[in-house]
Write a structure and sequence with these properties.
Largest sheet: 6 strands, antiparallel
Strand order of the largest sheet: 1-2-3-4-6-5
Strand content: 25-35%
Order of helices and strands: EEHHEEHHEE
Structural class: alpha+beta
């Protein structure tokens, strides 16, 4: 069963005040496409329409990673929309697999396996204002959330050399 409900914004440090929407999906191959359409429907035809393509690409990659690399039964998508930013968080029930970008520090794509895997997080690195992950549950971690923030207009987005790199929390 898929559910959508508007809720109060999360208190997580990477979320901002604004409208908040949630979608719970079964862990299936179709989940990435459903999440992509959900996020696009929230942003299309609004002042946020300039970032629809980036948001679709990023949420597809993060949900696909949750599907491919975890055995979670549900993938939860949380979207918070403010005037200047959109933050998308994708949670799964596998706290011990923290993501890392697939590109080496010189920015080139590694040959072999990395050409097939790891590009999604490289895309997050390139497109998002900030991204990272949170492991939730204190002493007994219960889940993790991979999140990214996109700026609504180009003027609010820092140049790649000035883009903040949010540390991944393990």
């Amino acid at each position: 069963m898929t559910s959508v409900n508007a809720t109060a914004p999360s208190a997580s440090p990477h979320c901002q005040d604004g409208e908040s929407y949630r979608l719970s999906l079964p862990n299936t191959a179709r989940s990435a496409g459903i999440a992509r359409h959900f996020v696009a429907s929230l942003l299309t035809g609004t002042p946020h329409s300039g970032i629809v393509d980036d948001a679709r690409l990023c949420v597809t990659e993060v949900v696909a990673n949750a599907h491919r690399h975890t055995r979670t039964s549900l993938i939860r998508v949380h979207v918070t929309i403010s005037r200047e930013q959109v933050t998308v968080s994708v949670a799964d029930d596998t706290p011990w697999t923290a993501p890392s970008a697939g590109a080496p520090s010189d920015g080139s794509i590694r040959a072999g396996h990395a050409q097939e895997c790891g590009r999604g997080l490289f895309l997050l690195e390139e497109l998002a204002l900030a991204w990272g992950s949170d492991v939730c549950g204190c002493c007994s971690p219960s889940h993790k959330a991979v999140w990214f923030t996109l700026a609504v207009d180009a003027e609010a987005t820092p140049q790649p050399s000035a883009r903040p790199h949010t540390a991944i929390q393990a």
